[in-house]
Amino acid sequence: MASVSSKRRRTSTGNTTIEGTNSLFDLPSGILVHAATFLATPSRALFATALMDDAQDVVNQLSSAIAGDQTTVDFGDIEKELALNLSDGDINSALLRIDAVNELKKLRITNCVNMTGIGLLPLRGSAVIQQIDLSLTCDGEGPSTLDLESSISFGIVLPILDSIIERGVVQHITLPRIWMSSYR
Fold first, then answer.
1. Residue 107 is inside which H or E element, if any?
2. Across 100-106, average pLDDT
3. Helix (H) or strand (E) run with residue 146 in it
4. Roughly what angle, to the nearest 10 degrees, separates helices 29-36 and 57-67?
5. What are φ and ψ of residue 126, in 5° steps?
6. What is the pLDDT of residues 131-178, one digit of tens each?
7. With contact defined as beta carbons under 8 Å apart, do 62 and 29 qualify?
């Protein structure tokens, strides 16, 4: 009988959820890093971004370990509903977290219809990126209505692409369909 009442006391004494753990930061970093290995590449970067706090070096080191070394990011690897709701700020933070300007070789913004392109600023001047797909579509998928719903701005993205092309490493760029039909 005493164990039942002490159990009730333990679970009702505050916001503590598991033996003194109040938040993710209370968990050992190894657990978070290991759990992140089960996530798709973009999800790892977004999870690391969620843990990021510039005022805490330990958290920054942890979020870098969670993001891992990523050379390919395809937002088509995450749930479509999540990708549809990502903003420029989300994409910008994820690209910064993985040090995209120095590490990323392939980027696909599949289903990211809410971005204007400012979220791609961390790629400015990249000397390593080889492939950029701004078409919003998945592999083997033809042009879709997503292309028409896209708010990606030619004026914002063009200077970023220019700075990448100047480096001479990029091999392939796929533009949004709406750009091609707008400038014919």
1. strand 106-108
2. 92
3. helix 145-149
4. 30
5. -60, 135
6. 999 988 776 566 555 555 678 899 999 999 999 999 888 999 988 877
7. yes
Please state, in angstroms and rounded to a whole number, the distance separating the CA atoms of residues 88 and 109: 11
Token output for 105 = 């070789």
- Residue 88: its pLDDT value, please? 95
Q: What predicted TM-score, i.e. pTM, was given to this entire model?
A: 0.72
Contact 100, 126 (CB under 8 A): yes
By the 8 A CB rule, do 22 and 16 touch?
Answer: yes
- Report which secondary-structure segment, H or E, holds 106: strand 106-108
The total of other beta-carbon atoms located within 10 Å of residue 43's CB is 17
The values of phi and psi at residue 88, to 5°, are -60, -40
